Amino acid sequence: MSSWRFCPLCGAGLEMRAVGGLPRSHCRADCGFVHWDNPAPVLAALVEYREQIVLARNHAWTAGAFGLITGFLERDEAPAAGVAREVKEELGLDATAVTLIGVYPFARKHEVIIAYHVLAEGEIRLNEELAEIRLIAPEKLKAWDFGTGLAVSDWLARRGVG
């Protein structure tokens, strides 16, 4: 549910009305504004580096919490190019192959996750977002039951693990 209270076009108040079959914030003055409140597209990379999987911990996360490399899709960017960009920005690695794993809803953060398996090479250099990484043998990787963990589960299943 949107927290917007006023129309960004004309300043009138917003009210909930059915638009496109769903309740949406709509301008009371009928200037035409509808807040569609679509989820943000997020890219996730299950990075395979030197036959191991890279899990990363963001500085904002609690100690011991690790996940995939993620970032937002930029305007006019192809998702496969965007995930390679995120791997380069966050780990300093070059993507040599990018394969779609799947697309997953992440309602808790109002996002849709587009997940890829990324083969990468180079030398790892963490950017300012990441506190640390762990390298995990693929056979020791365990999926979690939300967000990017669903992509990990699918990737493991395709490999005959899990």
UniProtKB/TrEMBL annotation:
Which InterPro entries does the entry link to?
NAD-cap_RNA_hydrolase_NudC, NUDIX_hydrolase-like_dom_sf, NUDIX_hydrolase_CS, NUDIX_hydrolase_dom
Coiled-coil regions in this chain? Answer: none
The record lists the membrane-crossing segments as none
Keywords for this entry? Hydrolase, Magnesium, Metal-binding
What is a GO molecular function of this protein?
A: metal ion binding
Which cellular component terms (GO) are annotated to the entry? Answer: cytosol
Q: What PROSITE patterns does the record point to?
A: NUDIX (PS51462), NUDIX_BOX (PS00893)
Q: Does the keyword Magnesium apply?
A: yes
Give the Nudix hydrolase domain ranges: 37-158
Any one Gene Ontology biological process term? NADP+ catabolic process
The cofactor required is:
Mg(2+)
Q: Please state what the protein is called.
A: NADH pyrophosphatase
Question: Which species expresses this protein natively?
Answer: Candidatus Accumulibacter cognatus
